[in-house]
Amino acid sequence: MKLITRNTDYALRAICYIAKQKRMVTVTELVKILGVPRPFMRKILQQLSQAKTLVSFKGQAGGFKLNKPPAKIFITQVMSIFQGPLDRDSCYLKKQLCPNRSRCVLREKINFIEQGALAQLAKINIASLIEG
Fold first, then answer.
1. What is the architecture of the domain spanning 6-131?
2. Do the beta carbons of residue 44 and residue 30 sit within 8 Å?
3. Which of 16, 45, 62, 69 is most buried, taking the most CB atoms under 10 A from its CB?
4. Can you give the pTM of this predicted structure?
5. C-alpha dist (Å) from residue 94 to 90, 91, 97, 100
6. What is the CA radius of gyration of the chain?
7. Residues 6+ apart with CB under 8 A from 125
8. Running DSSP on this structure, what letter comes out for residue 68?
9. pLDDT, tens digit (0-9, with 9 covering 90-100), for 77-102
10. Distance CA 1, CA 63 (A)
């Protein structure tokens, strides 16, 4: 099971870096600091802008900054942007929807674990990540 995808990981790193700088940050700076290919980073930043997590400024002096305080940006929000809704309907034991889902002997235990994991993730915001 992959809890956080590569896109989510890079997005969280970019958001944390921008939050620490407390200023507008360019794509070039993020690419250099995070070591992410430029086209990939631009796509991630565009998605974060479309989701209103970041604000983008165009032009030679342009860049990105947070659209809200770090304490108001939660990891689950970023996960939803890049991984879709954090639902618990899919089976992690198979890649496709399991026809045995309603009778699965593990489903109740897996649901309990998933609920706990999502509850813990929902408590994590960017402020807590950059503070240590």
1. Orthogonal Bundle (1.10)
2. no
3. 45
4. 0.84
5. 9, 6, 7, 11
6. 17
7. 70, 71, 72, 73, 74, 75
8. S
9. 999 999 888 765 566 555 566 666 67
10. 35
Alpha carbon 122 to chain centroid distance?
Answer: 12
Structure tokens at 73: 């940006």
**Nearest-angstrom CA–CA distance, 31 and 26:** 9
Tracing tokens 């930043």 back to the chain, one arrives at 45
pLDDT in tens, 29-82: 999 999 999 999 999 999 999 999 999 999 888 999 999 999 999 999 999 999
The CA distance from 96 to 32, in Å, is 38
Q: Measured between alpha carbons, how far is residue 60 from residues 25, 47, 96, 119 in Å?
A: 12, 21, 46, 42
Q: Which two tokens stand for residue 36?
A: 């992410």
Domain boundaries, the chain: 6-131
Are the C-beta atoms of 88 and 115 separated by less than 8 Å? Answer: yes
Place of tokens 């009778």: 103
Q: Which tokens sit at 83?
A: 């991984």
Helical ranges in 1-132 per DSSP H: 6-21, 27-34, 38-50, 75-83, 107-121, 126-131
